[in-house]
Design goal:
Radius of gyration: 21 Å
Strand content: under 5%
Number of helices: 15
CATH architecture: Up-down Bundle
Number of strands: 2
Shape: globular
Number of domains: 1
Structural class: mainly alpha
CATH topology: Na+/H+ antiporter like fold
Strand order of the largest sheet: 1-2
Helix content: over 70%
Largest sheet: 2 strands, antiparallel
Distance between the termini: 52 Å
């Protein structure tokens, strides 16, 4: 039977209970993400740095008869665990389309336009500095916004910010995730195997049929999700798209339960483990000197900090001035600017795309340093804008 769309939440001055729970989990996840990133940096720059590399490059294979999967531990994190992360992203996108901000055209216009501006300008800035060669492959790195990190930082630097501004950031980041997924599939997938693509389509068709006849139990859903991941992985398309597809195809009546069960695992375990596996950049004097003059590092950092802030704020201002959208109730222009700056924290997805974009370890490290620097700078810029806004709001009240 077709999806039974749950009714939208009753209007009210604050976020719904489900949204409050979501934001609380993202805030806690953002804190753990920071801790994991710091641990990775300390470990990779300690006397035990060889152990860091040795651990995450440990090979772990699975033999399924005619099918053999050979990945190192970092590969299993990036390609398998992150598929669960993107499954949660798919569930979030579906929730927004069914009962969230993306359900109503007028309310959806602003975060959609803002997200597009915040993806296009960073990519253009990066390509202006890296127009050719292997470095040009990193254009997708500064396009991403890290939901957990951004929401967590927002809770710390501006706890009194209006709920409407917080919801704008959340919706903006979800639209941003949709863009990042498209970039990963289109630009960062390898050669495609038509046979495995056909197998993946057969799995998807099975999900659709079982959903319509009411036979998609949680166990069957999980087994089909694993089957889809394997077929997509073997096809050459990046397997994280399997998670997104399963999230979008999840039965609407099970949506909230699935998200409730998986969101905590994603934010509180998978994303911190991803940071631990990928944020361990060696910050030697030589590496920092190379990064200081690297167009990759500069392109990533400027794209995230300047491109995101200007792209989001500029696109939002344009949409409002043209009458396409309205500024969220209770949100000021300064709130919008602060949220736009905060979107420059690309961390998780930016690091993820870095691993897909470059084969050269030096370029990988230069891009990662740019992501780390941008996350710090974007946080400082947002803190200045949002703390100043809070003082101003208090003075006017």
């Amino acid at each position: 039977m077709p999806d039974r769309v749950p009714p939208p939440p009753a209007p009210g001055p604050g976020p719904s209970g489900a949204l409050r729970e979501f934001l609380a989990t993202e805030t806690a996840g953002g804190a753990l993400l920071v801790v994991a990133a710091v641990v990775a940096l300390v470990w990779a720059n300690s006397p035990w740095q060889d152990a860091y590399d040795a651990f995450w490059t440990t090979e772990l294979g699975i033999d399924l008869g005619p099918l053999e999967l050979e990945l190192d531990l970092r590969g299993w994190v990036n390609e398998a665990l992150m598929a669960v992360f993107f499954l949660v992203v798919g569930l979030e996108v579906k929730r927004e389309l069914l009962i969230g901000e993306l359900r109503e055209r007028r309310r959806a216009v602003l975060p959609i336009v803002a997200a597009v501006g915040g993806m296009v300008l960073p990519a253009l800035i990066y390509l202006a500095l890296n127009p050719s060669g292997p470095e040009a492959q990193g254009w997708g790195i500064p396009m991403a916004t890290d939901i957990a990190f951004a929401v967590g930082v927002l809770a710390l630097i501006a706890p009194g910010i209006p709920a409407s501004a917080r919801l704008f950031l959340l919706t903006l980041a979800i639209v941003d995730d949709i863009g990042a997924i498209l970039v990963i599939v289109i630009a960062y997938s390898s050669s495609i195997d038509a046979g495995w693509i056909g197998a993946a389509m057969l799995v998807l068709a099975t999900v659709v049929v079982l959903r319509r006849v009411g036979g998609l139990s949680p166990l069957v859903f999980a087994l089909l999700g694993v089957a889809l991941w394997v077929t997509v992985y073997e096809s050459g398309v990046h397997p994280t798209i399997a998670g997104v597809a399963m999230g979008l195809l999840a039965p609407a009546e099970q949506l909230e339960r699935l998200e409730h069960r998986l969101h905590g695992w994603s934010s509180l375990l998978i994303v911190p483990v991803f940071a631990l596996a990928n944020a361990g950049v060696v910050l030697s004097a030589g590496a920092l000197d190379a990064a200081a003059t690297s167009t990759v590092t500069i392109g990533v950092a400027v794209g995230l900090v300047v491109g995101k802030a200007v792209g989001i704020a500029g696109a939002s201002w344009t949409a409002i001035r043209l009458g396409w959208a309205d500024l969220p109730s209770g949100t000021t222009g300064r709130h919008l600017a602060g949220v736009a700056a905060l979107a420059g924290i690309g961390f998780t997805v930016s690091l993820f795309i870095t691993a897909l974009a470059f084969d050269d370890p030096d370029l990988v490290d230069e891009a990662k340093i740019g992501v780390l620097a941008a996350s710090v700078l974007a946080t400082v810029l947002a803190a200045v804008l949002l703390r100043g806004s809070s003082r101003r709001d208090d003075a006017e009240s």
